């Protein structure tokens, strides 16, 4: 059994996420999101969808990017 790096639960069905040269171990998607999801630099919500990257900064959507002065960014619907 492995141990979740967020909650410490020892669980027989943990899973690994390989990202940027590191290996992370989680027992559920909630813990993975908690540890891995970027944070919107405007409203501070965890970005679990596509998000918007502008000039090296992450936002949850075009509205927040525009609120931070980024131009030419639109949401796709």
Supply database-style keywords:
18% helix; two-stranded antiparallel ribbon; two-stranded antiparallel sheet; 77 residues; alpha+beta
The succession of helices and strands, N to C, reads: EEEEHEEH
The major sheet is characterized as: 2 strands, antiparallel
**Helix/strand-derived class?**
alpha+beta
The averaged pLDDT comes out at: 93
How would you characterize this protein structure?
By secondary structure, this protein is α+β, with helices and mostly antiparallel strands. 18% of the residues lie in helices and 26% in strands. It is built from 2 helices and 6 strands. The chain has helices at 29-36, 62-67; strands at 2-3, 10-11, 15-19, 22-26, 52-54, 57-59. A hairpin with a 2-residue loop joins β3 and β4. The chain is elongated and about 50 Å long.
Offer a quick outline of the entry.
With 77 residues, this protein is an alpha+beta fold. It is 18% helix and 26% strand.
Write the layout of secondary structure elements.
Elements: E1 2-3, E2 10-11, E3 15-19, E4 22-26, H1 29-36, E5 52-54, E6 57-59, H2 62-67
Antiparallel strand pairs: 1-2, 3-4, 5-6
Protein name: Prokaryotic metallothionein
């Amino acid at each position: 059994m492995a141990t979740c790096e967020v909650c410490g639960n020892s669980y027989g069905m943990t899973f690994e996420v390989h990202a940027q040269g590191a290996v992370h171990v989680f027992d559920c998607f909630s813990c993975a999101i908690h540890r891995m999801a970027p944070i919107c630099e405007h409203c501070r919500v965890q970005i679990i969808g596509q998000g918007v990257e502008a000039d090296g900064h992450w936002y949850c959507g075009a509205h927040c990017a525009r609120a931070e002065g980024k131009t030419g960014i639109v949401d796709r619907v």
